[in-house]
Amino acid sequence: MIPFYSNEDVRGFIYDIRSRLAMVSDDINDSIALAEIEKYVFSKPGSHSAGYKANRELIQKIFFSLRKEMDILQPLVDDAGISEIMVNGKDDIFVERKGRVSRVPLSFDSTEDLEELIRRISARVHREINELNPIVDARLSDGSRVNAVYGNIALNGPILTIRKFPERVMTIDDLIKNETISEEAARMLDCLVFCGYNIFISGGTSSGKTTLLNVLAQMIPHDERVVVIEDSAELQIKQVDNIVRMECRNANVQGKGAVDMSQLVKTSLRMRPDRIVIGEVRGSEVFDMINAMNTGHSGSLSTGHANSISGMLKRLESMFMQAVDFPVDAIRSQICEGIDVIVHMSRMKNGSRKIIEIAEIDRVENGVIMTNQLYDHNFGLTGNRLSHREKIETMNGRSGDKADKIADDIRLLKI
User: Fold this and answer.
1) Residue 370 is inside which H or E element, if any?
2) Tell me: the pLDDT tens digits for 165-213?
3) How far is 167 from 231, CA to CA, in rounded Å?
4) 31 lies in which domain range?
């Protein structure tokens, strides 16, 4: 609450000013809107007693409420140094800055205000959140990822989590500079993507999987046709002209109209893709993804949650079983045939994100998927060569300066 003004005062002011702005013009800019708000606030009899600070806070709050997408959170969204915003009910707001989480001195006037913000965000991407549909994944206009949980299942009030993405798309050079990956490992991944190896990125929550997926996608040759499938659109692939982007859709209040990841993966196979990029797999869509990788769509990319490469392989097995009743040996064989390389990321105690292991999926031996470690937690190449070299040897039939550079790197790195 703003000192001096009650919540009821503020809500009344917002209602009055919304009507006043509508009378001024249907299309006014922020400067005119701010001037009208200031004129209104300073015309109130109590403004002289409220003091400068309370009046400025009131003006700012009204301005953000009426003119900005994110209400009182707008300054946090605009702050390039903040990577995540966490709202735990109306009074508890936290941010992550440079890997460190801290509380900020902001709060919503009421639970209803926070719920209204969540509903507006959801509506902009044609999704619904209410007591019957209390969980939603959405995105902001700048591509930031949003998760919200309604107050009827969150004990401390509505929960809103916003994962921001940098305005500038990160590159592999940025990851090297941040010590997320060594230069040699970066060159190795460039070779693997170019040659068409199917790469899966694993890691825990907020370990940097999506950022790395974006970086690897930038390495895809610009003349290929790429189909991107996401639960909520956030990838930024700009160097490929021939690109198809699809996003899952939730069911409406009647329980109709849902389009899930599995359906999108299936339909992507009819679009003649050279590569399929799947934002994240969480369930039975693994079956369709592995089938796609096994039927000529080399160089596909995806991510999944796990604490290690071995843990990711077990999770893939479990998700595969959700879709089909196959013998486990057959499932392991399919995974081994489909995924060529797994890259595992971790968030360190100091908040930094690092690639801690890269391993080739080698073979199934005595019912166990065996891996060939290429890069380890010491942040260096292990010196092991790829066991499966068919894609390197053919280089997807490519020639030219980029192909020559890749060939040189393969030889120098002894991949």
Assistant:
1) strand 368-376
2) 777 778 999 999 999 999 999 999 999 999 999 999 999 988 999 999 9
3) 21
4) 7-67
pLDDT surpassing 70 at residue 1? no
Last residue of a domain, one of 67, 90, 113: 67
DSSP for 372-386, please give it.
Answer: EEEEETTTEE--PPP
Q: What is the 3-state secondary structure (H, E, C) of 71-116?
A: HHHHHHHHCCCEEEEEEECCCEEEEEECCEEEECCCCCCCHHHHHH
CATH number at residue 158: 3.30.450.370
- Amino acid at site 279: G
The last residue of one of the domains, among 140, 163, 186, is: 163
Residue 52 pLDDT grade (very low, low, confident, very high; cuts 50, 70, 90): confident
Determine the Cα–Cα distance for residues 383 and 395; give it in Å rounded to an integer: 21
Q: Which residues contact 329 (CB under 8 A, 6 or more apart)?
A: 364, 367
Taking the C-alpha atoms of residue 111 and residue 376, their distance in angstroms, rounded to an integer, is 47
Distance of alpha carbon 386 from alpha carbon 42, whole angstroms: 72
